[in-house]
TrEMBL record:
This is Uncharacterized conserved protein YndB, AHSA1/START domain. Residues 14-150 form the Activator of Hsp90 ATPase homologue 1/2-like C-terminal domain. It comes from the Bacteria. It comes from Devosia crocina. The lineage of its organism: Bacteria, Pseudomonadati, Pseudomonadota, Alphaproteobacteria, Hyphomicrobiales. InterPro entries: ASHA1/2-like_C, START-like_dom_sf.
């Protein structure tokens, strides 16, 4: 077992925990937040694969074209406790297949409000330490992209 590090980000949503949970795992929404996440990261958002099987043990694959290279993110769901918890393995490089990183999203009702607060923990091998800040920025962009989808800001306005 190698040493581990953890990225941690928190995001407040105006939406209920149920709505946040459903938007994250619903295959109909996945393609939209995947694209919004890429745009939030300053990328073109050219999706090559967006697959999700939202059940414990179900696999997912998110892939996009970055200057002619396919960037892939994949794993399997380990926990789905609607509306409070989503857990999954998270792999970005084949070398991680044996010991994948793990992600846990805790979704809590906002105190004294109608929304929710998501705290996301990404535990990964310490070899990726120099990528920790970039990883946190990526998760922030993903949660912002998810919010764009929930709030319908990802749909272009009619011209």
């Amino acid at each position: 077992m190698s040493d581990k590090i953890e990225a941690k980000v928190t995001h407040r949503f105006r939406a209920s925990p149920e709505r946040v949970f459903d938007a994250f795992v619903d295959p109909a929404f996945t393609r939209r937040w995947h694209s919004a996440w890429l745009r939030r990261n300053g990328l073109a958002g050219i999706l090559t694969r967006t697959e999700i099987d939202p059940q414990v043990g179900g696999a997912f694959m998110l892939a996009d074209d970055r200057d002619g290279q396919e960037a892939r993110h994949w794993g399997r769901f380990t926990e789905l406790e609607r509306p409070t918890k989503i857990g999954f393995t998270f792999i970005v490089d084949e070398s991680e297949e044996e010991e994948p990183g793990t992600v846990t999203m805790i979704i809590e009702p906002e105190p004294n409000g109608p929304g929710s607060i998501v705290t996301l923990y990404n535990t990964m091998d310490a070899q990726w330490e120099e990528w920790l800040a970039q990883t946190e920025r990526g998760w922030i962009a993903l949660l912002n992209g998810l919010e764009d989808v929930i709030e319908r800001r990802d749909i272009p306005a009619p011209v």
